[in-house]
Amino acid sequence: MAKKSWIARNKKRKETAAKYAEKRKALKEAGDYEALQKLPRNASPIRVRNRCSLTGRPRGYVGKFGVSRIKFRELALDGKLPGVKKASW
Q1: Pairing of strands 61-62, 67-68
Q2: How far apart are CA 27 and CA 60, in angstroms?
Q3: Measuring CA to CA, which residue among 21, 69, 77 is closest to residue 48?
Q4: How confident is the model at residue 15 (pLDDT cuts 50, 70, 90)?
Q5: How far, in Å, are 22, 24, 40, 45, 48 from residue 34 at the CA level?
Q6: How far apart are CA 25 and CA 71, in angstroms?
Q7: pLDDT tens digit string along 21-64?
Q8: Which residues lie closer than 8 Å to 75 by C-beta, 6 or more apart?
Q9: How many beta carbons lie within 10 A of that of residue 13, not counting itself?
Q10: Which of 16, 21, 56, 65 is a Cys-bridge partner for 42, taking CB atoms 3.0 to 4.6 Å apart?
């Protein structure tokens, strides 16, 4: 499991990015890059890291389900993900 501080920091970044989304869009369309630079760094959505919603793991993220590859496999084998089954041929 990831450190609680990393998970909390990423959550704060998501909130900040959502808060400034409209303002960033308006400044970009206007071409006002000086005002854009004065916004907080974490207002940029590129600084948000995709993390597993259960463990906080940053790598091996399966975007459609919002979990890491490890938790995805566990949930799929337990039958907790609807429409997902193990392939066999």
Answers
A1: antiparallel
A2: 34
A3: 21
A4: very high
A5: 17, 12, 12, 18, 22
A6: 35
A7: 999 999 999 999 999 999 999 999 999 999 999 999 999 999 99
A8: 65, 67, 81
A9: 19
A10: 16
Q: How far is the first Cα of the chain from the last one, in angstroms, to the nearest whole number?
A: 34
pTM for this predicted structure: 0.81
33/87 Cα distance (integer angstroms): 50
Residue carrying the six token digits 């909390």: 8
3-state DSSP assignment of residue 16: helix
**CA-based nearest residue to 10, from 63, 55, 51:** 51
**Tokens coding 39:** 């916004």
Find tokens 């308006």 and name the residue.
26
